[in-house]
Amino acid sequence: MTDYTPLHLDWPGCLNVRDLGGLPLTGGGTVRERALVRSESPSFLTDDGVAAATAYGLSRIIDLRRPAELEEWPSRLAGLPSHLHLPVQAADDPIEGPWVTLYTGLLDRRPELFARAVAAVADAPEGPVLVHCAAGKDRTGLVVALALSLVGADLDALADDYELTNERLAPRYAERFEAADGAVPGREIPPTRHVILGALEHLRTRHGSIEAYLTRNGLTRGHTRALRARLTAPTPR
Q: Which of 76, 111, 204, 228 has its CA 20 to 30 A from that of 146?
């Protein structure tokens, strides 16, 4: 565990929105504030939530969900010109388990889509970039972890941030569980830090590094430089 204090954002309707500014880097310094934001689906936003999200000045919104999910749960931010739909799965991709297998399957099956999503963070106009999926946990967790790894994020802090989603979404899951009288088929223990760390280690073992995984599948050196410039806060002298 680290001393990293997350910057939770109050966007009414959503429970799991945070600016990753302040997350420590291994070589010193931190991730820049108002550069990268993660959340669950904006379909949960109230009118006040939409206003808060819009006021944050998002320069790009990256929606990682499948087309069918967008149709069933439309994003309340989809009308903004900064919205991009960049799914990291094909419509017929299988859902596998347990958790680490799910994540490595996603990464191995569609590497070009993950590279595309990270590139979209790197080449966004100036301003905060929002990355989201449905819960802001799995697909969002992977894309955020890839981007943060490229700029040298502290792995313990990265894992701390990943695990925070369980805490943030607990009230929503508790309501669903109660509404179903506890009869929720296949209800599982939420994934913990070992899941995201295992997925990243899988990429290092199989491809040599996370950067190699991404560059072999479309991320350019220019994207990597732009990502570091975007996400890395200046180190105080």
A: 76
